[in-house]
Design a protein that fits this description.
The chain contains ten helices and eight strands. It is α/β, with parallel strands linked by helices and 276 residues long.
Length: 276
């Protein structure tokens, strides 16, 4: 990590912070989930940096990026990612996102069909209720619960947070906990002033995506989001999509089953080397 470049770029009038592994390899941008930061991808980045120029950015309100009082809906996050790619002059990067970051990546790919080479989505949120207004209202209430949890986490020391993480996430590698705890201390409570769920039905978003998609799913019983019914529906919608299910993992698939996760990504991208 000490060899990675740490810098800022002006995007949407805000300073976004990122780490970059560098080099002349194909670009890859990693978009983290809510309350994480770019460095939460460190373990993944070390592996993928062998083949890619990896950019791990801190979403607005996270890590070392600017934290405005408002502007945390999915459109804002998507515009930031588009702006980051433009500012860094990345040519058709691969995009990989987790949770909120996966929702961001999907929206970018849907609305900017020639921006990404291909995308990987780690357990994105796909609201099951057809009443989007109700979904958004419920998620806003959930965000207030998350605000309370985040404030509570920030009252703990890093060592206390790491101990909590170990007790709740026994499958994670030890190196994950310090970075995870640091991200919880860095996140701004402003991020809970809005919901990152899209006001556009996810079916409509996926129908518009033209580039290859890998969706990585896990066990609903362990806390994963995407259901088998949603996967079946996706197969009737998307143009170039495929699914890898990783058993023994919850919502944090890469942290729970790291080796299987990396293998799935490498298999997908090796097969898509010549796309576009």
């Amino acid at each position: 990590m000490s060899l990675w470049n740490s810098a800022y770029v002006d995007v949407s009038g805000l300073q976004l912070h990122y780490h970059r592994t560098g080099g002349t390899k194909p670009p890859l941008v990693l978009a983290h989930g809510i309350t994480d930061n770019g460095l939460c991808w460190s373990r993944v980045a070390r592996i993928l940096a062998q083949s890619y120029d990896v950019v791990m950015y801190d979403a607005r309100g996270h890590g070392l990026s600017a934290a405005p009082e408002t502007g945390y809906n999915i459109v804002d996050h998507a515009n930031d990612l588009v702006g980051l790619v433009a500012a860094l002059e990345l040519e058709q990067p691969r995009l990989l996102g987790h949770s909120m970051g996966a929702a961001t990546v999907a929206m970018v790919a849907a609305n900017h069909p020639y921006l990404a080479h291909s995308i990987v989505l780690e357990d994105p949120p796909l609201p099951q209720n057809d009443d989007l207004d109700q979904v958004i209202a419920t998620h806003r209430m959930n965000m207030q619960e998350r605000r309370h949890l985040a404030a509570q986490q920030q009252s703990y020391t890093r060592e206390e947070l790491m101990a909590i993480g170990r007790s709740e996430s026994s499958l994670w590698a030890e190196e994950e906990f310090a970075i995870w705890a640091e991200a919880k201390h860095q996140v701004s409570l402003n991020i809970f002033n809005d919901t990152y769920l899209s006001r556009v039905p996810w079916q409509e978003t996926f129908r518009k995506i033209e580039c290859p998609i890998l969706l990585i799913t896990a066990d609903i019983a362990a806390g994963a989001f995407v259901t088998s019914e949603q996967v079946a529906e996706l197969h009737t919608i998307w143009q170039q999509g495929e699914v890898t299910h990783i058993s023994g993992a919850g919502h944090n698939i890469r942290r729970d089953q790291f080796e299987q996760y990396i293998a799935a990504i490498n298999t997908f991208w090796q097969a898509k080397t010549r796309y576009r």
